[in-house]
Design goal:
Layout: H1 2-29, H2 34-39, H3 45-54, H4 61-73, H5 87-122, H6 127-141, H7 144-158, H8 174-208, H9 211-218, H10 223-252, H11 255-260, H12 266-276, H13 279-307, H14 309-316
Helix pairs in contact: 1-13, 5-6, 5-8, 5-10, 6-8, 7-8, 8-10, 9-10, 10-13, 12-13, 13-14
Length: 317
């Protein structure tokens, strides 16, 4: 197990380094000028030169990356080109909002996917299975921003049950916080549940076809016992791996949803960085999302190995 953890940590560090290189190069070689975005389209050539010299943008890309990496490792993400605000503290302030939204959306996705996926597998090739598979196809085809707009139209403009947007910290007003979070979380969670339904169904089908489950059925075990006692645990192993990736996808796909519902999270912060070509904001936001996704995948990989000791034995042999 120790060998597995060390191997995974080494892979984590190498992947994070490779991701940082790709992010830095991609953001810096994209068309557009950070100086013109910050100074305006009527900025003179001299003003642009001064701006680029002030922020080190006139130096070779390798030198810029080395300096940025050194500062980032010390916890300094730089300052915004637009307003001079330190990026690190601003990112930390917004991180709980995005984390709360992604967590709510993930809970909603799993509340939909796990029972429906398990039920579809238990009713394989019957009406319930076909209906759930069709529903998953429909949900997977819906863009989350379209669903968000529809929810606002129904629950805010028509029924007037929920506020159109904004954010109130949970510690200040829990009820208002939940009211403001429910529609963004539903927009993300319902769409994400489509993939998870299919994964849960496929995992359960594989487990239900194994010999020990058939033996339990032959001994007269109830459907509830077969599903919850004999099948769920093994079905969760492949499901967890995909769910972790999906949670990371949720965390990284909040940009549009946060903008629609005026949530001050990492996504809206990154969106402003994209519009203004604010490199420090873009790099910090993208790196934070990458770090979160990689950490989550690492933890889930280790948990899956604990749930299935055969993986540890196979890797150590």
């Amino acid at each position: 197990m120790i060998r597995l953890v060390l191997t995974r940590l080494a892979g984590f560090v190498l992947t994070l380094f490779a991701a940082s290189v790709v992010l830095f190069v991609t953001i810096n070689v994209l068309p557009g000028s950070a100086a013109k975005s910050a100074l305006g389209i009527h900025a003179t050539a001299q003003a642009i030169q001064r701006f680029e010299a002030q922020h080190g943008l006139d130096r070779p890309l390798v030198v810029q990356y080395a300096e940025w990496l050194g500062r980032t490792l010390r916890g300094d993400f730089g300052t915004s080109f637009q307003n001079g605000v330190a990026v690190g503290p601003e990112l930390l302030k917004r991180l709980p909002v995005t984390l709360e939204l992604a967590t709510f959306a993930f809970i909603i996705a799993n509340l939909i996917a796990i029972p429906l996926g398990a039920w579809a597998a238990r009713r394989h090739q019957k009406g319930a299975d076909r209906s759930i598979t069709f529903l998953a196809t429909i949900l997977g085809a819906i863009p989350n921003f379209w669903l968000a707009t529809l929810l606002v139209l129904v629950f805010t403009l028509t029924l007037r049950w929920l506020p159109p947007g904004g954010f109130t910290p949970f510690t200040v007003n829990p009820v208002m916080n939940l009211k403001q979070m429910i529609m963004p979380a539903l927009s993300l969670g319902i769409v994400s549940s489509a993939l998870l339904i299919r994964i849960m169904r496929a995992s359960m089908l594989e487990v239900l076809s194994t010999d020990y489950v058939r033996t339990a059925e032959a001994k007269g075990a109830s459907s509830r016992t077969i599903v919850f006692r004999h099948s769920m645990r093994n079905a969760f192993i492949p499901y967890l791996n995909v769910a972790a990736v999906e949670f990371g996808f949720l965390f990284g796909s909040v940009v549009v949803i946060e903008d629609i519902f005026l949530l001050p999270g990492v996504g809206s912060f990154v969106l402003v960085g994209i519009i203004n070509r604010d490199y420090p904001v873009l790099l910090a936001g993208a790196l934070a999302i990458t770090l979160f996704v990689l950490t989550l995948n690492l933890l889930v990989d280790l948990i899956a190995s604990l749930l299935d000791p055969r993986q540890v034995k196979a890797r150590s042999s």
